[in-house]
Design brief:
The protein is an alpha+beta fold and 330 residues long. The chain has helices at residues 3-22, 67-75, 113-130, 151-159, 163-168, 170-181, 191-203, 258-274, 284-290, 303-311, and strands spanning 26-27, 47-51, 57-61, 81-88, 101-110, 147-150, 213-219, 235-243, 246-253, 296-302. A hairpin with a 2-residue loop joins strand 8 (235-243) and strand 9. It contains ten helices and ten strands. The strands form two sheets. The chain has an eight-stranded mixed beta sheet with strand order 1-4-5-10-9-8-7-6, sandwiched between helices. The longest helix has 20 residues, at 3-22. 36% of the residues lie in helices and 20% in strands.
Length: 330
């Protein structure tokens, strides 16, 4: 147990709450027992059963994110909202950058991912001037606004690969990726599989090394819950925030088309089945709420990951009162 790190964590959470309150965001409190944990293909939830008064068993999950519940609030008329929520992820979520339960900051506002980019800069400016434990590693500046780089530019700069061409030409994509990786790629790997090979080995370690960096406009196939860019629909209005090679947050211009949302959820479940994962229940109350939302931008940031880069800590478990590895069998 690291008492200093626990105090830093509480200090940061208090500052984040102060920032969003001063920006006139309303703080929500969403449930920890939910009908669906999330629909992303590679996210896995914790499941439990509730036994009601009549002896009926109802399945619930712990949330992998408060996003679904927040969007129900947005669909009912809320607009500028935030939450610092406890979230849970199963299936191997452990390591220097991962823990099966953590704190997630999410905020949403009318507009798009562009307004969220500006919020990120204001939040980091606020924290760098008020969080006394912040570390300033050599060559990195917290004072600079975030650098904004398209994902196409990332592949061109660090991998000498034309990502847009690769999205349409599978032979080019595979051959160029093999060349830059200098390793064999199995024939059955998809575009996304190869993308993440190149991303994690060649590109990601270079991101956000001198200042916070926003990487924007992911391929449409990686849109998740974001809108697609008009008019071509090749790219999604999505960005990720990187600081010193660590992904800190994931943001969208939120999808507001309920039919498209349902289609994506069904597609995700089909992919889960193909990979041998159980499908997740589709939350149709969420789908209805999505269709009632105004144009909205939103983001999720891992609190403990943010703490890691602020404090120059290399092990996320230092920010937990009882890290997973310390739990003993009874």
């Amino acid at each position: 147990m690291n008492k200093t790190r626990m105090k830093q964590k509480r200090s940061l959470i208090n500052l984040i709450r102060e920032f969003f309150t001063s920006e006139n965001f309303f703080e929500l409190e969403t449930p920890l027992l939910v009908p669906s944990p999330g629909m992303e293909v590679h996210l896995h939830g914790f499941k439990t059963n509730y036994l009601n008064f009549h002896g009926e068993v109802i399945e619930y999950y712990l949330p992998t994110s408060p996003e679904f519940a927040i969007k129900k609030a947005l669909g009912s008329g809320f607009d500028k909202v935030f939450e610092i929520a406890r979230v849970f992820r199963n299936h191997g979520e452990s390591g220097p950058l991962h823990h099966p339960e953590f704190n997630m900051l999410e905020w949403y506002r009318p507009g798009s991912y562009l307004e969220i980019m500006d919020d990120v800069d204001r939040l980091l400016e606020f924290l760098q001037s008020r969080f006394p434990e912040i570390q300033k590693p050599s060559g990195f500046s917290w004072e600079l606004e975030s650098k904004r780089t398209s994902i196409q530019e990332c592949f061109e700069k660090y991998g000498q690969i034309d990502l847009e061409r690769g999205m349409e030409d599978s032979k080019y994509w595979r051959n160029e990726s093999i060349n830059i990786l200098n390793e064999t790629i199995p024939e059955n790997e998809s575009f996304e599989d190869i993308f993440f090979r190149v991303w994690m080995k060649i590109i990601e370690p270079n991101l956000g090394m001198t200042q916070a960096e926003i990487i924007y406009d992911y391929p449409a196939s990686m849109a998740a819950l974001s809108k697609l860019k008009e008019p071509e629909h090749k790219w999604s209005e999505r960005f990720e925030l990187y600081i010193q090679g660590v992904e800190i947050g994931n943001a969208f211009s939120e999808l507001t088309d309920s039919l498209e949302q349902e289609r994506r959820f069904k597609s995700a479940n089909a992919e889960r089945l193909a990979l041998g994962y159980p499908p997740h229940p589709i939350d149709y109350d969420l789908i209805e709420a999505v269709g009632k939302m105004q144009a909205t931008g939103g983001i999720a940031i891992g609190i403990e990951r943010l703490l890691m880069v602020l404090c120059q800590e290399t092990d996320i478990s230092q920010f937990y009162l009882q890290p997973l590895g310390e739990i003993r069998r009874i």
